[in-house]
Amino acid sequence: MKISAKQQDSEELYALTSNSFTPFIWQLMRISLLSIFLLFISFQLLMALNVKGQVMGTSQVTIGLNKEPFMVAIKEIEKQTKFRFFYRKADVEELKQLNLSTANRSVEQTLYELLKNTAFTYKQIDLNILIERKKESPRQERKISGKIYIENTQTPIAYAVVELLKSSDSTLVAHSYTDTAGSYHILANSNSSLLLRVSGLGYQSYTTKIEQGEESVEVPKIYLKVAIHQLKEIAVSGNRPLIQRKSDRFVVNVANSSLSVNNTVWDVLKQVPLVNADDNGALSITAKQGAVVYINGRKSNLTGQALFNYLKSLPSTTLSDIEIVTSPGSEFDASGNAGILNIIFKKRESDGYQGSFSLTDRQANYNSQVASAAFNYRKSKLGVNLTPYYNRDRKWITERHDVDFLGSQTQNIFNFSTLYRKEFRNFYGGNLGIEYNLTPRQTITGNLDYNPNHQTLNWVNNSLYLNKTNQKLDSSFVFTNDSKIKGHSLDGGLNYQLNLDTLGQSITASVDYFEYTNNTSQKTYATVDGTGEVRRDEIATLPQKIKNYTFALDYKLPIGANTKLKLGARSFNTSTNNNLFYKVANTFGNYIDDQLRSTSYRYEEQINAIYASADVTLGKNWSATTGLRLEQASTKGRELIQNKVAVDKDYLNLFPMVAVNYTPNVEHAFSFTLSKRIERPVFWQLNNLRVYVNPTQYVEGNPFLQSSYILKNEFSYTLKSKYIFLLSYSHITDNFSQFVLANNNDNITRVAWLNYGTGNIADLTFVANLSIGRFIKSSVTLAGSYVSYKGKADEEIIDNHGFMGNFKMNNTVVIAKKSGVDAYVNFSYITPRMSDIGTDSKFKSRSNLTVGFRKTVNQFVFTLSGADLLKSSANISTVRSRYATVYNNNYFDARSISLNVRYNFGNSKLKKNKPQENVAQDVINRTRG
Fold first, then answer.
1. What's the Cα-to-Cα distance from 146 to each of 154, 193, 218, rounded to whole Å?
2. Do 718 and 623 share a structural domain?
3. 377 within domain boundaries
4. Are residues 415 and 465 in contact, defined by beta-carbon separation less than 8 angstroms?
5. Which H or E run includes 46?
6. Residues 715, 807 within the same domain
7. Which among 755, 747, 681, 673 has a CA at the least distance from the CA of 714?
8. How far apart are CA 365 and CA 871, in angstroms?
9. What are phi and psi of 25, to 5 degrees?
10. Residue 869 and residue 854: Cα distance in Å, rounded?
């Protein structure tokens, strides 16, 4: 429950951990940074509107080349004129030995002479000259066919994989399989030269070149050699993603793999190593608490269902790479233990529109529906993304919380507590993103995310007290809680990017506003069984509001060919208001204010950060990333009605990071990372509210809760770009957790968040992506951990340690390729594991089996799936404390059957907007539980 409580004592509480005066210099820096940012943007906009450029046809230059590269001419033109060139480095490098007699010519005539016999052209945009490839003339699909045999025989090879690749960059164009006669037929929409690659189970691969030519090509017979060393059961095909280990991240090359064919971006994520994704929208990185999504290097402000809808709407053919950062560097926010998932799209220039509509019906105990859409539009310099959704969620939740009291005055009491909860929730809203290219070097983006919600929660709690001595019922009561919740989240931001040159030097400035409201009203009523005596009859209202303003500035500078420098600054400014107002029924049934338990708590937090990071290539086999982040924070907490709680804290933190990568050859890659991070409490844990779950138990927060710090070492080994071994060790100080605390002399229990001490976690993870035969692809994750928690909180001693493990397998099965029918079977299992509270507290094992079938018909995709089919995902635990042992058994209505219908439309080659970085994402995450 995301609520907390006020202090019980009447004495004034005051905690001062440092000077409460915020340094004047920090305020001055914030104001100066914002002023410079606004002046800078205004100046660039004025320049963009008033620039008067030269004309290529009249501007004169004197240039001569003697077997020299085209880059020499570019530099000389930029030196003699005000023109600046834009080009793809790989394209320009093709123009190596050019000749041009020295003479005075116009820029246009010079470029014409140099490029007239090449595949490139040029055009002027203001003071910029764009070098690009000439457009290929459209032509019909080429039909390529042939037959595959075993070497030295006329025996055909059935079901061999036949792939067509671009000869220029080995990009996959199309693929097919041979039939039982060894024949294949492929249609390729390309008139350039191609590579034909053939592979089969137990045979050596074969590659040949197909030159530009006729639209119908009959390839001579191909004979494959039998492989000397072949796997007896499992063959790993050559078309799975190529995993490259860099100093601080894993890079999965999606573009050159078969994953990019006939999939969505979300479908690809489900099969990428180290990534956990499912069709309910859950996304995380192995051994991490979650995943923060970046797109093309910029943090996305889409999360949850909105992010799922967006990535599910995009065809996988738009993907280039997926980067997985298990230990984020200094340029990333230092808060949290989540990893980074950077999704990189190909650069496309097509105009038009593209999108999808989706409808899901889910049947569990109740029926729920989700409707969503994603729409992308681009015209010249303007790009628009829109992702609306509506989620009608209905759940029936059962909970057991049995308490065996152990106090000197309570050791004869055992409490059986059963809770049944109906949750009817309605979420709706969406995200709007707009991008506009002011000039070829300047881009401004805006983003608005608005998500209202209406919720109704009704629960009934049956509580029985048993005398353990005579095994007789002592007393029992029924407690009901009817809650109405209305709220919303609003996130809006602006982002401005200026590319200073074509080498990667750039400046990015962002401003973001976030607002979250939650207005809860609840009526609670408790009666004693048998007598009907009223134990509780009251009304509580809990309005909560969070506001945040965030400013960010980033600068990137390449230094030579082997070093990239990143510098940046952040300023987070957050205020929260948490109120609790009680009304209690008197003997006449009228509700009167309860001034003693009502409270209003205000919390303010300011975090300022600067960072520096460098990526360095050290020779052929070594690379490194190093960085440092400095954060200054100031927090204040006040109880406004009775002025009982006051918290003022100022602190300064350094977060270093270093990563080293060694790649002796293409089959082996080793990497080591050392980093420090911080885990900040979420905002609802920091108020002083007290809310009763039933007449004998309440939940409270802790305004004095401290952040914990994580020091992490990580070593990884990547074998043959297919298998990953990941070993990590984390040491946590000032760790905090949620405790269930009982008293020595009565049956009242409270739930509170407390700091307790240290945690040590060692993880070993193995990940492999396998192809089993021709029709099954499987992703396997095996992980083992050793955990140790030690410390003390309140009167509780924490001393827990032990081993745990988990196993996960995602399988995709092609049932009928031509008919577009496939299936997936996903299974996960978590062994019994230790808790970080009490002594010898444990969670029982859990598992989840999900099965789905998918049928594609033109632009329609139909998916029928079942989740938690074995109903084995219940959260069962035993929590031992000084004066009580609590037995929990909670099930959250996970077993269900769902039917999803999705319709995709528009131009699949549409260039997507560069997502605006949500610089306030860390603050948004701390509004959630």
1. 14, 17, 6
2. no
3. no
4. yes
5. helix 24-50
6. yes
7. 673
8. 13
9. -65, -35
10. 18
The CATH number of the domain holding residue 285 is 2.170.130.10
433, 446 contact by CB (below 8 A): yes
Question: Domain for residue 193, yes or no?
Answer: yes
CATH number of the domain within which 117 lies: 3.55.50
Q: What's the pLDDT at 764?
A: 94
Say if residue 840 is in the same domain as residue 723. Answer: yes
- Residue 667 located in a structural domain: yes
Q: Please give the pLDDT value at position 392.
A: 92
The pLDDT score that the predictor gives to residue 369 is 92
The span from the CA of 486 to the CA of 107, in Å, is 64
Taking a C-beta distance cutoff of 8 angstroms, is the pair 346, 271 a contact? no
Helices and strands counted in the chain (H then E): 7, 51
Cα distance between residue 877 and residue 616, in whole Å: 48
Cα 832–835–839 angle (5° rounding)?
110
Residues 614 and 748 both lie in one domain = no
What 557-565 contacts at long range (C-beta under 8 Å, 24+ apart), as own/partner pairs, is 557/505, 558/503, 558/504, 558/505, 561/617, 562/616, 562/617, 562/618, 563/614, 563/615, 563/616, 563/617, 564/504, 564/614, 564/615, 565/612, 565/613, 565/614
Place of tokens 């609520």: 3
CA distance 483 to 500: 55
Closest CA to 332 of 389, 369, 291: 291
pLDDT of residue 278: 67
Token pair belonging to 807: 């196993």
Q: Could you tell me which residues are beta bridge partners of residue 896?
A: 867
Q: Which of 754, 759, 851 is nearest to 812 (CA)?
A: 851
- Clarify whether residues 614 and 538 are in a common domain: yes
Q: Looking at 178-245, which runs of residues are DSSP E strands?
A: 183-188, 194-199, 206-210, 216-218, 222-224, 242-245
Output the DSSP codes for 333-369.
--BSS-EEEEEEEPP--B-EEEEEEEEEEEESSSEEE
Q: Which residue bears the tokens 């789905």?
A: 852
- Token readout for 552 is 């960010």
Is the separation of the CB atoms in 711 and 730 below 8 Å? yes
Instruction: Tell me if residue 646 falls in helix, strand or coil.
Output: strand
Q: Are residues 666 and 587 in the same domain?
A: yes
Measured distance CA(139)–CA(148) in Å, rounded: 28
Type of residue numbered 680 = R
Report in angstroms the alpha-carbon separations of 121 from 70, 747, 911: 13, 83, 22
Neighbours of 5 (CB within 10 A): 22
Is 737 within 8 Å of 756 (Cβ atoms)?
yes
**Residues of the chain predicted below pLDDT 50:** 1-28, 31-32, 34-53, 138-139, 228-241, 348-349, 910-912, 914-917, 919-921, 929
CA–CA dist 745, 405 (Å, integer): 10
Q: Which of 537, 611, 604 is nearest to 567 (CA)?
A: 611
Identify any residues that bridge with 785 across adjacent strands, giving them in sequence order. Answer: 763, 804
Q: Does 491 map to a domain?
A: no
- Alpha-carbon distance values, 63 to 59, 69, 77, 104, 607 (Å): 13, 13, 8, 7, 54
Strand 216-218 to 142-150 pairing: parallel
Report the domain count for the chain: 5
CATH label of the domain that carries residue 164 = 2.60.40.10
Domain boundary among 347, 369, 389: 347
Domain final residue pick, 299, 314, 347 = 347
User: CA-CA distance, 187 to 145, in Å (whole number)?
Assistant: 9
Does residue 608 share a domain with residue 508? Answer: yes
Structure-token pair, residue 108: 């246009």
pLDDT at residue 229, rounded to an integer: 41
Q: Which tokens is 294 given?
A: 């970046």
11 SS3 class: coil
The verdict on 146 and 285 lying in the same domain is no
- Please report the pLDDT score of residue 117 as a whole number: 78
Domain containing 315: what range? 242-347
Nearest to 453 by CA among 493, 423, 492, 420: 423
